[in-house]
Amino acid sequence: MSLIVQKFGGSSVRDYEHLLRMARIVKARVDEGDDVVVVLSAQGDTTDGLLQKAKEISEYPSPRELDMLLSAGEQMSAALGAMTLQSIGVEAVSLCAWQIPIETDGTHGNAEIELIDTARIQRELAEGRVVVAAGFQGVDERGDVTTLGRGGSDTSAVALAAALKADELIIYTDVDGIFSSDPRICQNAVRREVISYDDMLLLAQKGAQVLHDRSVALAQAGGVPITVRSCREGGAGSVVCETDEDASVVGVTQKKSERSRLAAITAVGSALPSIEKEKIAVTALERAEITVFAVAAGERFMSFYVLRDDAERALQLVHDALIAAVE
Description:
- The chain is 37% helix and 25% strand.
- By secondary structure, it is an alpha/beta fold.
- α6 runs antiparallel to α7 (213-222).
- The two termini are 39 Å apart.
- 46% of the residues are buried.
C-alpha cells in the first residue's frame, strides 16, 4: 500500500464530466489499496470571475478580503470533488487549509507555507477516506485565510506530498507530460520522459506554463519527484527529479509582458550558453525575417528578444533549429 498525492488543475475539474473523470482516476488507485490525498484547483475560470466581482466593487480591494473571496473557488472544488467521489462509492472528505491546517506567513496574495500539521489527514486516511484538499490556500497565525499566489495549487500539492512523505506525487494536466516546447504551437515538440529540477525550474521561470517555478523549487528542496501526466488513459507522462540525464537543449519557451513590445524566446539546457547554438538560432530567425533585438545568456539558458507579434513563429523556429533538427 502506498500514499499517493494527486493534483488536478482547474481545467481538469471544470464541470461534472471532468469531475467524474477525476474521481475515476482516484478510484483506480483506491481500488489498488492505496491511500490517496487529492488537491484541487478552482474550476475553470472561477478565480478570474471572482477577481472581476471584486473589481466591480473596488479597483484596489483589501488583500485580506480578496484572499477570503478567492479561496472560495478551491473550497467549492474540494466539496464538489468529495461529492463526486462519494457518488461512485468512494469514501471522501473535503478539507480547507484551516481544517488541515496548512500554516503560512501573513502575506496575503503570495503567502509562504511554514508548517503542515498532517494529523487530521492521517486520521481521515486511517478511517478509509480519500482526503480532498483545497489547493492554493493557507491560514496565518491570526486564523486569517491566505492564498499562495500564482500556481498555488501546485505548491499545495508539493508541500503536502513532502509533509506526508508520500510515495508518489502526480500532477494531472491537459497534455501528457512536459514537452520540449508548447505542443499546441510547435508540432515537432517531443515529450521528455525525465527532466531535472534545474531545467524545469528555468523553463517555468522563463514562461513555461506546465508547473509553477515556486512548486518546482519546493519539490527540489524537499526531494519530491513530480510526475506530470494527462488525465487521458494510457499517458506515460514525465518525471521531474534529481537526475544526471542530460540533453543538449531540453526545451524552448516564450515569455511576454504587457509592459514591453518585446517577447523573450528562451532555450534551456546543460549545453547553454553556446556561441555555436546562438548563431544557429539567430540565423534561423533572420532567415525568416524576424529581427533579434538582443540576446541574453546565463547558466543553462539563452534568451532571444523579438517583437511580441513574432513570438509564436520565433518559438517554432528556435525550437526546430536547436531541438527538432538535432533529435
